[in-house]
Amino acid sequence: MLVISFVMGIVLLTMFFDNWLGKQENPNQQPVTRIDADGVYELQLQRNRQGHYVFNGLINDARTVFLLDTGATDVVLSEQLAVRAGLQPGLAMQAMTANGTVTVYSTIINELRLGDIILEDVRASINPAMSGDEALLGMSALRHIEFSQRGDALTLRYVP
């Protein structure tokens, strides 16, 4: 009985710390959008421990984790995520990244969802060198949104 209690304690502690670490990496796992009286959508994001704005969203109904990147020209996603989102690779192009020049493929995201903010027909790049379910939220999406930072919070404002 003591061994079973010990094992259950270890399992519960592991689950607790896994959840806690996940919130440290992505404090915006369920972003909440507020709509003001003028119909303006506001989404407030908290910075993670590394100083980045990371949050969950959707690309064509495929779940993704966005990293806000004002230095990225387009929304950039992995080939795996592009397949899950039903995106077709288009024209091959060269792109400069922090890791050097890579070949990416242009595509268009039909629907990009950030909380209740919905952007349509957003230009994107598929980067085969990326992996996983993360995407860079670049300026092709951010140009439709007003954003301001105060302290550890970033507010995205969208007028439909």
How would you characterize the overall build of this protein?
The protein has a six-stranded mixed β-barrel. A four-stranded antiparallel sheet has the order 1-2-11-10, with no helix packed on it. With 160 residues, it is of the alpha+beta class. It is built from three helices and eleven strands; from the N terminus they run H-E-E-E-E-E-H-E-E-E-E-H-E-E. The chain has helices at 2-25, 79-84, 139-142; strands spanning 33-35, 41-46, 54-59, 62-68, 75-78, 92-97, 100-114, 117-127, 134-137, 146-150, 153-158. The protein is globular. The protein has one domain (27-158): Acid Proteases (Cathepsin D, subunit A, domain 1). Residues 16-24 have low confidence and may be disordered.
Sequence of strands across the biggest β-sheet: 3-4-9-5-8-7
Please state the overall shape, judged from the principal axes of the Cα atoms. globular
Mean pLDDT: 88
According to CATH, what is the topology? Cathepsin D, subunit A, domain 1
Percentage of residues assigned to helices:
10-25%
Query: In CATH, what is the class?
Result: Mainly Beta
Estimated radius of gyration: 18 Å
Topology pattern, helix = H, strand = E: HEEEEEHEEEEHEE
| Main beta sheet | 6 strands, mixed, barrel
Q: Which residues form runs of ≥5 with pLDDT under 50? A: 16-24
CATH superfamily label: Acid Proteases
Number of domains: 1
> Roughly what fraction of the amino acids lie in strands?
over 45%
Distance from N terminus to C terminus (CA atoms, Å) equals 60 Å
Instruction: Quickly count the helices.
Output: 3
Which CATH-level-2 architecture? Beta Barrel
Structural class, please? alpha+beta
How many β-strand runs?
Answer: 11
